[in-house]
């Protein structure tokens, strides 16, 4: 039986029909259908309070933050789906990153991958590079290739009206990211 890796998937978008979150739904579908040995769980970060150290109490955090931190701690790797806002990641995603970095930093040593969507040809690349920069301090280990930048608004249509990924070529590109994340996670664990 193949080693099962657990991936925590976070979306930096709140929009109901978000293309960014649609990438996570597609990744989950791929993990259930065509990639053995990978289990992806979407972690909803929309209800986390804004980071405020006054909410910390002798090394403990509000229950919702503790639950979020526990899910990250239990995961072997992380899949970030990020929109690009003003050349950077969203406040929602940065807030979650900051909560999980409070002592002890639960990101440390994990493999990670980033997928992004945006309106321009770079497809969220600037946000990805900013997230990689943040990851250096957090001791996250991002896969280098393949990179996944998607201009979701350029024809042909890539998502349906509900934000579900419908483009087969893009799904295949996403699958390659997941396979790379799986292989890199196993290497970091000394199993690959």
From TrEMBL:
Residues 5-152 form the NADPH-dependent FMN reductase-like domain. InterPro entries: Flavoprotein-like_sf (IPR029039), FMN_Rdtase-like_dom (IPR005025), NAD(P)H-dep_reductase (IPR050712). The keyword Cell cycle does not apply. One of its GO terms (molecular function) is NAD(P)H dehydrogenase (quinone) activity. Keywords: Flavoprotein, FMN, NAD, NADP, Oxidoreductase. Signal peptide: none annotated. Its EC number is 1.6.5.2. Homotetramer. PANTHER family: CHROMATE REDUCTASE, NAD(P)H DEHYDROGENASE (QUINONE). This is NAD(P)H dehydrogenase (quinone).
């Amino acid at each position: 039986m193949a080693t099962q890796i657990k991936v925590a998937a976070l979306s930096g978008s709140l929009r109901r029909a978000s293309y960014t979150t649609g990438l996570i739904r597609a990744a989950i579908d791929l993990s259930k259908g065509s990639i053995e040995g990978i289990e992806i769980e979407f972690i909803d970060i929309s209800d986390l309070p804004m980071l405020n150290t006054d909410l910390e109490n002798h090394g403990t955090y509000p229950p919702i933050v503790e639950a979020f931190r526990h899910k990250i701690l239990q995961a072997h790797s992380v899949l970030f789906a990020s929109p690009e806002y003003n050349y950077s990641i969203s406040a929602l995603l940065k807030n979650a990153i900051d909560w999980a970095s409070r002592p002890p930093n639960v990101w440390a040593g994990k493999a990670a991958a980033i997928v992004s969507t945006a309106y321009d040809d770079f497809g969220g690349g600037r946000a990805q590079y900013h997230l990689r920069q943040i990851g250096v301090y957090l001791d996250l280990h991002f896969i280098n290739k393949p990179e996944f930048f998607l201009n979701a608004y350029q024809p042909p249509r890539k998502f349906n009206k509900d934000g579900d990924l419908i483009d087969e070529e893009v799904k295949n590109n996403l699958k390659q990211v997941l396979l790379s994340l799986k292989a890199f996670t196993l290497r970091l664990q000394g199993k690959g």
